[in-house]
Design goal:
This protein has 109 residues and is mostly beta strands. The protein contains one helix and seven strands, in the order E-E-E-H-E-E-E-E. A hairpin with a 7-residue loop joins strand 1 and strand 2.
Length: 109
């Protein structure tokens, strides 16, 4: 059976992400150049780790976190450990939807 080209259906998976604010509660890696951030989004009660940070953003955020007081080792919802920080820093994140809902840091507020 042959299908006419006008009868072919194309399905495309559309991924959606919303921007939201999240409080920085810790880092993974060196504080002056973190690899990832431990974040507490506005609507959640347990911290989640961000997606890996690019070098430029890590350097900017590291400068803002340099003087924050460490609060010890903690675990994120994924079970991974991070160094807790007492900071008032808030970042804007793209929060992906779906099963994984990755938090991609866009900028500091």
């Amino acid at each position: 059976m042959h299908t006419h080209p006008s009868e072919v259906q194309i399905r495309r998976k559309i991924r959606h992400a919303d921007t939201t604010d999240a409080r920085v509660v810790g880092t993974v890696g060196p504080r002056r150049r973190p690899r990832r951030l431990a974040l507490l989004p506005d609507t959640e009660s347990r911290p989640r780790l961000s997606a890996p940070l690019n070098a430029a953003l890590a350097a900017r955020l590291g400068a803002l976190l340099a003087d924050a007081t460490a609060t010890g080792e903690h675990r994120a919802t994924s079970g991974e450990t991070y160094t807790g920080l007492d900071t008032g820093l808030v970042v804007e994140v793209l929060a992906g939807t779906g099963r994984h809902g990755t938090l991609n840091v866009v900028r500091a507020r």
